[in-house]
Each structure stands twice: as structure tokens, then as C-alpha cells.
Amino acid sequence: RDLATGPSTPNWWVLVGDMGTGKTSIVLRLVKGQFYTNLESTIGAAFFTQILSLSEATVKFDIWDTAGQERYHSLAPMYYRGAAAAVVVYDISNKDTFTRAQKWVQELEKQENLNLVMALVGNKSDLESHREVAAEEGDQFAQQHGMIFVETSAKTTLNINDLFYQIAKRLATVS
Ligand code: GDP
Ligand code: MG
């Protein structure tokens, strides 16, 4: 796929959120089943194709792992306009990333994409002793915005598969 022209398949999902929250780690844990401690930061955007088997259907999607939006305070709209799902990631050990995740949700809500399935993800849940965002805060915000909410750890694998299954299930019911 041409990175310059953006997504072109009918079913693509996009991951957004601050740099360092673990977006690339989440997608690599999903598609490769591994956690890499020495990740080079993503330049622009990268996509991965994934297939999930639900009891109802098999779902194939491209997932776009974005980067650089931190610097420009926005993501090229081509990545989320027409996306089926958006995953907004923050780091439970960094309150600022939660504040910015909320801004992301507002940005996504400005899109006239009524069927967009949105998920809020508190990653690095293994860093419990450094927690700055209570699970209830994330859950409450997600509920107010009709979002799926999960705390994950790309490091331990906690809830990574569950996150993507929940999105696939919700997509199966909205479309
Ligand atoms: P991105 O900039 O959002 O793509 O974040 P990365 O996936 O590059 O991760 C940033 C840093 O956080 C890396 O050093 C990762 O190893 C680390 N990291 C990612 N996910 C987790 C996690 O669940 N737990 C912990 N402890 N570290 C993580
Ligand atoms: Mg990245």
C-alpha cells in the first residue's frame, strides 16, 4: 500500500494517541505476538493486516499505526476519515497522555462518521505502582462517549486480544 496516499481498503482501523503510549507495541503484540523492548519510533504511519475469527464471522482489517501527530497536533484526516474503528491510546502511568487522549476523542467526534467504532485504551497496566490514571476515570470517560474501554499491557499481553475482539464484535453489530 502506498503510505503517501493512505488507507484504501474498505475496512481499516486506526490507532492514535501520544508518542510513547505503546501504540506500536500494541499492534506488534497483536499481529506478531511479541513485545520488543527496543522499538524505533514509527515514522508517519505503518499498516498491518490482521484477521480475527469470531463465531459470527471472520473479520479482516488493516490497522494503521500512526505517529508524528504529537508534533503537528493533528493526524492527516485521510487516516481516520472513513475508518471503521479508531483506537485512542493513553499510558496509565502518565496523566498528560490521558488528557490528550480526551482531545483525540473530541477531534474524532467532529468527523461526520457516525458508524465509527471508538475504543479508549489505557495501556501499560503492568505499571501499577506508577499509575496516574484510575481505571474508573478512563471507564467513565469512555462510557460518556459510547466507547469501548480496556486497560491493556502490550508487555504482558493483558487484554490485547480482547480489545480487538470487542471492536470486531461491535463492528459486526453496527454494520
Ligand atoms: P508509540 O510511540 O505509542 O508507538 O509507543 P511504543 O510502542 O513505541 O512504546 C513506547 C515505549 O513504551 C517502549 O519503550 C515500549 O517498550 C514501552 N511500552 C509499550 N507498551 C508497554 C506496556 O504495556 N508496558 C510497559 N511497561 N511498557 C510498554
Ligand atoms: Mg509508534
Keywords summarizing the entry:
175 residues, alpha/beta, 6-stranded mixed β-sheet, 5 helices, 31% helix, globular, binds guanosine-5'-diphosphate, binds magnesium ion
What's this entry about, in short?
The protein contains five helices and six strands.
Give the beta-strand count. Answer: 6
Strand content: 15-25%
Oligomer: single chain
Which structural class best describes the helix and strand composition?
alpha/beta
What string, H for helix and E for strand, traces the elements in order?
EHEEHEHEHEH
- Calculate the terminal CA-CA distance, rounded to whole Å: 25 Å
Rounded radius of gyration (Å) = 15 Å
Stretches where pLDDT is under 50 for at least 5 consecutive residues are none
Mean pLDDT across every amino acid position:
87
Q: Total number of helical segments?
A: 5
What's the shape? globular
> Helix share of residues?
25-40%
Main sheet strand line-up: 2-3-1-4-5-6
Describe this structure as you would to a colleague:
- The protein has 175 residues and is of the alpha/beta class.
- It has helices at residues 23-32, 69-72, 95-109, 135-144, 160-174, and strands spanning 12-17, 45-53, 58-66, 85-91, 117-123, 148-151.
- A six-stranded mixed sheet has the order 2-3-1-4-5-6, sandwiched between helices.
- The chain is globular.
- Magnesium ion binds next to helix 1.
